[in-house]
Specification:
Low-confidence stretches: none
Largest sheet: none
Radius of gyration: 16 Å
Shape: globular
Number of helices: 5
Mean pLDDT: 82
Helix content: over 70%
Strand content: under 5%
Distance between the termini: 34 Å
Structural class: mainly alpha
Number of strands: 0
């Protein structure tokens, strides 16, 4: 089971890193210093998150903090890009806001164990927070590709 969880976690971190690597150079092409800074931030945060989540493969103090750190580290460059790019804001602003909302909702549901915390044992096979997390993250990925 731990092997599958490690694969799941490392795949999600890789997906986050690929999102950064594809979006940051395009969004900050006129700002090479910001490009380098945000790309270094992405690599560092993804490395820390994978290391933390592999060491503690269940929801706990460190794994929840790592997941929230990943989300916050992705929100700041997105909001920064929306603030400095008028053309980008008009072309993709609403899609990027949807990505932020879906990813934030996914992180909240997963880190707080919603709905399991309200009815323990009732959501072990279906409708667990981990399943909701995947659905919301896939929705965010779909919105990101628009």
């Amino acid at each position: 089971v731990k092997c599958w969880l490690c694969l799941d976690i490392s795949s999600c971190a890789s997906l986050l890193l690929v999102g950064f690597v594809s979006g940051v150079p395009m969004g900050f092409h006129c700002y090479p210093t910001l490009q380098a800074g945000y790309l270094m931030q992405a690599v560092l945060v993804c490395t820390i998150a994978v290391g933390t989540l592999v060491c503690e493969p269940r929801r706990g103090d460190w794994s929840s903090a790592a997941l929230i750190l990943c989300g916050i580290s992705a929100i700041w460059p997105a909001v920064h890009w929306l603030a400095i790019s008028i053309e980008g804001r008009e072309a993709a602003g609403h899609w990027l806001v949807l990505v932020i909302v879906l990813a934030s909702a996914a992180s909240i549901l997963y880190t707080h164990g919603i709905p399991e915390c309200y009815a323990p044992g009732c959501f072990d096979l279906a409708c667990s927070s981990h399943q909701f997390w995947h659905v919301l993250i896939y929705g965010a990925i779909a919105a990101y590709t628009e």
